[in-house]
Structures are given as structure tokens and as C-alpha cells.
Amino acid sequence: MRRYIVIEGLIGVGKTSLCRLLQEAHGAELVLEPHEDNPFLEAFYRDPARYALPVQMYFLLTRWKQIDRIRQLGLFHPWVVSDYLFEKDRLFAEKTLSSDELELYDRFAASLGRDMPTPDLVVVLDAPTPVLLRRIRERGIAGEDRIQAKYLDDLRERYEAQWGRWTRSPVLRVDNDALDYTRDQGARDEILRRITQALDQGTHAPPDDPQGGLFRGA
Are 41 and 35 in contact, with CB atoms under 8 Å apart? Predict the structure, then answer.
């Protein structure tokens, strides 16, 4: 059975690491966000007002191109795993663009966003803001050292609003500060177990779990 899994969460929360863990465990094909290829990103961190629109349009168009790849991969690979949800692009756009820029963006996004493939499961990772800031500093990606707690907290609120209205697929919440699957084999086994359980149960919530749960948006 084909599985299309999306891993989501804030910057530095461990999305790509979990994608690679699923690749190793299930032979999954990866579709990763084109973060490092965006030629405007470092300039955006220095001057957000000037570079917000080209950054956002680059991400939008690149993500759209990858959607066809996800559809095609689903025909040949039992597992396809991506480290972003197409709809997340709008969260960043509404935060960084002016009203006129956002109107232009929405026209393109509405056209490009038709017939998006539906994930079988969205795994939402979370960790406290100080933990995210530490991880961001440790990985040392150019420009990310300018990210501040206020920026992450605002994005967190926007993400939470999105999950509150999300109805397209089940969502599994995971606190990966408490579940360090990058270093602990036991944690790796646990996160893989939770994802398999969530896929098997679909829209039915698993038993109460203090470190993560499955729900559908209302």
C-alpha cells in the first residue's frame, strides 16, 4: 500500500532528520524542501522587507514543481516522505509579505495549488523555542543566526491555527524535545512505532499518550 507522509514543524525541530530515519527504515523516497537552493534566503534574513516576495515566490514555484514528482513517485514507491506541506507556504507569506504582495502571491498560489496530493499522515514535530534556537545555532546555516525567539513564537501560533482547521488527513503530534530520535535508538524505535500505529489507525485516535497524540482538525 502506498504511503505519503509529511513531516511538519518549525525551523530546527528535526523534520529532515525524521524524514531520513523513515527513508532508512522503510526505503522511503524523500522529497525535501529546497531550502539551501533559494538564492534569496540569506539576503532575506538580512533585509526581510526587500527580499520577502522573491523568497516566497521561489519557494512557491519550487514546491509546486515537486508536487508532480510526489504523484509520480507514488506509483513506484511504497513510501514517499516529504519535510513540508504545500499549504505551509501561505503561513510564511502572510507573515512576511505586504498586503499588495500577498494579493499577488495568492493569485499564483490559488492556481498552482489545485489538486494537491493528500497525505496519509501529517507528523507535526514540536519543541520549546529555546531548544529550537539552540539547534539552529548548532547547525550553522547561513542567515539563520538572525532568527529570533519572537519570529519562532509567531510562526508557532500560525501553525497552531492551521492545525486547528486542518481536515484533509490525520495529524500526529510529537514532542521531539522529549523524544530525541537523532541520538537515542530507543527513541528511534518509538517514533517509528507511533507513525506506523497512526497510519494503521487512520482517523481513529490511539490511547492517551503524554508525549504525542493523533487527531483530525475540526
Answer: yes
